[in-house]
Fold this sequence. Notes:
By secondary structure, the chain is an alpha/beta fold. Helices cover 25% and strands 18% of the residues. α5 packs parallel to α7. Mean pLDDT is 90; it is low at 1-33 and 418-436.
Amino acid sequence: MIEFAMSAWSTWWLLLVLLTGWVTSDLYVHGSEVQKPHIVFVVADDLGWNDISYNNPDVITPTLDKLAREGVILNQSYVQPVCTPTRASFMTGYFPYRLGMQHKVLNRDAPAGVPLNFTFLPQKLKEHGYSTYMIGKWHLGFCKYDFTPDGRGFEHFYGFYNAEEGYYNHTVGGYLDLREDLHPDFHRNGTYSTYIFAQKAEEYIANHNQSQPMYLYLPFQSVHGPIMVPQHYLDMYPNIHDTNRRIKSGMITAMDDAVKYLVTSLQKHGMWENTLFVFTTDNGGPANPINAGNNWPLRGSKGTLWEGGTRGVAFVHGNMLQRTGYVNNEMIHAVDWYPSLLELVGGERDPDMDGINVWDTLSKGYPSPRKEFVYNIDVVKDARSGAAIRMGDYKLISGKGGHPDGWVPVPTVDGVWEEHVLMDEYEEMIELGLAPHNKTYLFNIKDDPTEHHDLSKHMPDKVNEMLARLEELKKKLVPAIHPKEEPDKADPRKFGNAWSPGWC
């Protein structure tokens, strides 16, 4: 039984609710207050479709599995083929081809970032009273302050700007890439980054002023390469005989433990019951012998337009969800998180935004308002040039779907795959990295989620319809922001041996 201290305002508000039925499941009434939920948004880096226990029982992720099964597993949650474009989608609500972020990733010497005319999600959430925190990987540009997390709405930041840093020495190219806000942290050498980020989350949660709602964005370094993990996690997988797959599996379990620590921290400080917890990957797993991600039974890998590169592991958990404990098969895309979270806190989306409010789909299981999305449009003439679109159940790829192409199972022993791989020489294909064909594919993803049956020759009218839609969408294409790198200006030796802003 909830007791209300009935002021004149709260009496009027309650009457409005009773008369109109206007109330959302995500706002809790305490006296005359409407308490907004805490939002914890966790991103796993390079986590493949087959890299979590609810899709693959050989992977040990008890915390993630429990949260997913208590919440809502999102079976058609789409992301971009690689890291920077997906993160740009999370932060802006726009497809990367409209931001100039559609081609590859932002390298460490690139004098660039996501254009500053786009308001990032934490900036918008601050307008609605949120304290904003980020821990982990940025990868959205840092050559000047305005491109950094601190410049784009995060009041507190602990993490790194680039990619592929060491998990223990926290360096990229021999120089430090770890900091708290703008201050490099040289004191964590030898400590595994997954532990560091979990501990920092506990610190931020413990010190958070609970009169304000919290937005915590936690994009882990895990499980991106270079692959490495403490020995006791390796020991948990004696039955995996491929060395790199064993390491990768251990990394996934270490991340699962970090999520358990995060949840425990929220519970300990009385915040968990009012927390919306989002978990997602940023792209498919890198299905190659070195990084050992896996997307079985989906086709393709990280860096491709195939489902294995773009159909991401994801779930939501929280008391504000009205329907839970099931698998949601409705279509959502990375751009949809921005407007959906804004809806949750009482905000409104930019009318030109690509993202759609899918909160009722997430919270109630209603049909998704999203009926189409763009996998990518990249017209730069290289191995990644190609475009793909989903319209209803149909998916069309125009140009290069990307490599690796095929259905790559989990390796059995070092470097050995079963006979499901499409190409004859896997190692040679990895080195080549080029699509052998520049053609058009059509798939019915509802009936054929693993993309085995190309329908393009049997349904020419559907192909022409979807090609025409792609051409229409290309009118909004922004040229890819991929400037010439400037290693001399970015040289960390000019900034105390740490990758730092202030050179563009």
